[in-house]
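Service request form, structural biology core

Requester: graduate student, group of Dr. S.
Request type: structure prediction, single chain
Budget code: on file
Notes: please return the result as structure tokens.

Sequence provided:
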Amino acid sequence: METQEKFLSFNLGVTDTAVISLQHIAEVLQVSLPEICGVPQMPSSVFGIYNWRGEMLWLVDLEAMLGYPPISQGSNLVSKMMAIVLENKGKYLGLLVRQLIDIEWLDTKEMKPASAELFYPKISSFLQGYFINDSEEIIFNLDATTIMQSPAWGIHN
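Core staff response, request fulfilled:
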């Protein structure tokens, strides 16, 4: 059975790396701050709304959501960010990340289960598991569906 899958890898925080399976990714685009419309009374991890292909796309600060310092804070603020657009059953959600790294093949057989002891509680609920790369670093495998269905957004229509 073919267990190799394509993943998009990107930075989380300053030192961590995460991947999301390409099968959940509709598009990757660069967004600049002025194009994002802020929305009052939203959780801090919800960045705002972006006009994507003529539709309203909610943008979420993935780092803030997973318990890292928000991308939008102080010296972390970058004028251009990458948004990973997730798709699930015709619904879309944009995840803002600092920097994309690459598209890579990973063997899902090598994935290890995420245990709450290893990871912050905030991140472990969004993990499908993790990989260890050749440099012995942990790579978080984020679960796109769980992220999209998170009650944190309160933006499901």
